[in-house]
Amino acid sequence: MPETDSASDTATQDPVARIAFKQAGGAPRLDDLWLFTGSVCNLRCLHCYTGSSPENRTLAPLTRAETAWVLAQAQPLGLAQIYLTGGEPFLHPEIAGILADGLAAAPVTVLTNATEPLAKHLDTLRELHATHGDRLQLRVSLDSYDAARHNAI
Known about the structure:
By secondary structure, the protein is α/β, with parallel strands linked by helices. The protein has helices spanning 64-74, 95-105, 116-119, 122-132, 147-152; strands at residues 3-8, 15-18, 22-24, 27-29, 32-36, 81-85, 108-112, 136-140. The strands form three sheets. It has a four-stranded parallel sheet with strand order 5-6-7-8. The chain has a two-stranded antiparallel sheet with strand order 1-2. Helix 1 (64-74) links the parallel strand 5 (32-36) and strand 6. The protein is globular.
């Protein structure tokens, strides 16, 4: 249950709830870290909750250096799992390095549409699997086996 105290919204000064960090051994604990790799996607799904598409450049992708900095901040908090989402993460120009860095820190799950961008990285994925085993997982959303039905959702 959220703790309430004198915290307030900085813009409106309205009271807000404060959520305490999960604790482990008296220190804050971060179980899951979600990294948004950018808003570009090779598909144009009408039901995409982020509005990603080939033309959507709303959010610049996190660089590998920025991701490494975030991972360094998260690891002391007991980081247990990393999720990469987007857009399509396999369109990111530094995805191979980001995956390697992430896997060195915690198990990584990539939310992907598992189409052509992923296929271009199969050798890298095989290498990472050989090194890290099941610490690398791919999650694929398939709403229909028929393209027209999938895209109509």
